[in-house]
Amino acid sequence: MQVYQDLEIYGNKEDLLKFVELVTDSLDENWNRGKELEDDIKSSSVGDSILFCFIFNDPEKRDLYSSLWLALSGNNKLYVSNIVPKERGKLAYAEYNEIMNTFYTNFVKDLSQQVGLECKISSGIQSIKDWLSPEVAKKLEIFSALANKSTGSAHPFDQKRWFDFIVSCHKEKCDLDVYRLQRWLIEEENWPEDNAVELTIEYEFSTALLSFYDEY
């Protein structure tokens, strides 16, 4: 399913700051540095991160007019923290990723190599196997394939398979949040939205309870 891409750049702080200035000097007619927005952010509390704003304003793509924010964290990492549309509430996954990839291809890819920085960009398409081990993913897929989608985990056999997935996920400390689980159930497995929401609530409560038990 489609997801928002992540872009991360690693190096020492001095090189990362140099990189930001190189990007600024290399901007084409469709981009500009949003220093006024940066100054507005500095006047409020934003933690320990330093934020840099780059505005995408391609006249042929007015509907994508947005500000891309880079954040420099304390652990020597520069990353895209968000892309915020200027004239509407939200960007679709494909739109967000189009802006991200334009920025990466035009400025980040070559300039990061010039400075000797490590750069990572994630895929815009991910599956449940990107968040779970093959074994745990298989248990979730079996549950979804065999469960009665109108009753969720109510049937004893379905509940057993559901609990098997949750316990296995907890044991492996899986990186699966409720939002991604809900999207997967609805978009990939065609679960009714109400039942998918109920399952994610069960998942969130169960994993929290298991974590509490481990520390008890």
What characteristics describe this protein?
2 domains, 7 helices, 50% helix, 216 residues, elongated, 6 strands
Structure commentary:
The chain has 216 residues and is of the alpha+beta class. Strand 4 (66-73) and strand 5 form a beta hairpin. The chain has helices at 13-26, 35-42, 93-115, 134-146, 156-171, 178-188, 193-215, and strands at residues 7-10, 31-33, 50-56, 66-73, 77-85, 118-121. The chain has two domains: 7-121; 128-215. It has seven helices and six strands, in the order βαβαβββαβαααα. The model has no long low-confidence stretch (mean pLDDT 93). The chain is elongated. The chain has a six-stranded antiparallel sheet, sandwiched between helices. Helix 1 packs across helix 3, helix 4 packs antiparallel against helix 5 and helix 6 packs antiparallel against helix 7 (193-215).
Number of helices: 7
Gyration radius (Cα, Å) is 21 Å
The separation of the N and C termini measures 37 Å
Pattern of helices and strands: EHEHEEEHEHHHH
- Beta-strand share of residues: 15-25%
What's the helix and strand layout?
Layout: E1 7-10, H1 13-26, E2 31-33, H2 35-42, E3 50-56, E4 66-73, E5 77-85, H3 93-115, E6 118-121, H4 134-146, H5 156-171, H6 178-188, H7 193-215
Antiparallel strand pairs: 1-5, 1-6, 2-3, 3-4, 4-5
Helix pairs in contact: 1-3, 4-5, 5-7, 6-7
Please summarize what this structure is:
The chain has 216 residues and is an alpha+beta fold. 50% of the residues lie in helices and 16% in strands.
